[in-house]
Amino acid sequence: MASEQEHHYPGGGHYSGLNRIPNIKQFVAGLDKEKKERDARIDAQLKANKNNKDVADHQDPPEVYKGTGRVVTDPVTGKQVTIDDVDTNFMKAAEEPHLSVPNANLGKETTVKTDSAQSGEEYRKAQDITAPPDPVATGSTSDVPIHGEKTNILFHPTPSVSYEPMYAVIEQRATVLCAGVFFAIILIGKFFGGRLLGLIPLAICVASGVFLWMKDLVRQGRDIEWSSEQKRGETATANLIPESVEWMNTLLGVVWGLINPDMFAAVADTLEDVMQASVPGIIENVKVADINQGNNPLRILSLRALPDSHMKELKDEMHKENEKTKDPQELAADEEGGDYYNLEASFAYHAKPSAESVSAKAQNMGMQLVFYLGIKGLFGIPLPIWVELIGLVGTVRLRLQMSPEPPFLKAVTITLMGVPKVEAGCTPMIERGVNILNLPVISNFVNWAIKAAASMYVAPKSLTLDLGKMLSGDDIQKETNAMGILFIRIHKAVGLSKQDRQGSKGGGSDPYITVSFSKFGKPMYCTRVIQDDLNPVFEESCAIPVTADLIKVDEQLSMELWDSDRSSADDVVGKVELSLQKLIQHPGKMYPQVSKLRGVKAESSMPGELHWEVGYFGKTQFRAALRTDGKDISLPKEIRDNKELQDDKGAIQSDQEDAVVHTPPDPLWPSGLLSVVVHQIVNLELANVKGSEGGKRKGGREYEPARDAGEIKEESSKKLPNAYCTILLNDELVYKTRTKVVSSKPIFNAGTERFVRDWRSAIVTVTVRDSRNRQHDPIIGVVPLKLSDLMQTSSQVTRWYPLDGGIGFGRVRISLLFRSVELKLPPTQLGWEVGTFEFNSEKISSTIRGMDKSKAKLKLRTGGSSIVVKREQCSGEGENFEWNISGITNNPRPRLPVQYRYRSPVFFEFHFSGRRHAEHFAAIWLQELVDGEERDFDIPVWKCDNAMRLSQNFITPANFNTVPDIKIEEVGRLRFRGRFKAGTDRDHLRFVGDNDSRETIETWEACFAEGVRQEEVSSVVPPSIQKLHDDSLTHARDVLATASEEEKRKWLSKDGTDWSGAFGQDPAEFMTGREGRDETEYESDETSDAENPDSPSQKLNHTGTDLGIKDGTNTTEEDEEGGPARASESDGVGLLPPGRPSTSGSALTTGTADSGKSRSSRNPIRQYKDYKEKSRDLHRQHRGLMQWRPLRNAQFAKDEAKYAIRRVTHMGSLSGRQPDVETEV
Question: Is 383 helix (H, G, I), strand (E, B) or coil?
Answer without folding.
Answer: strand
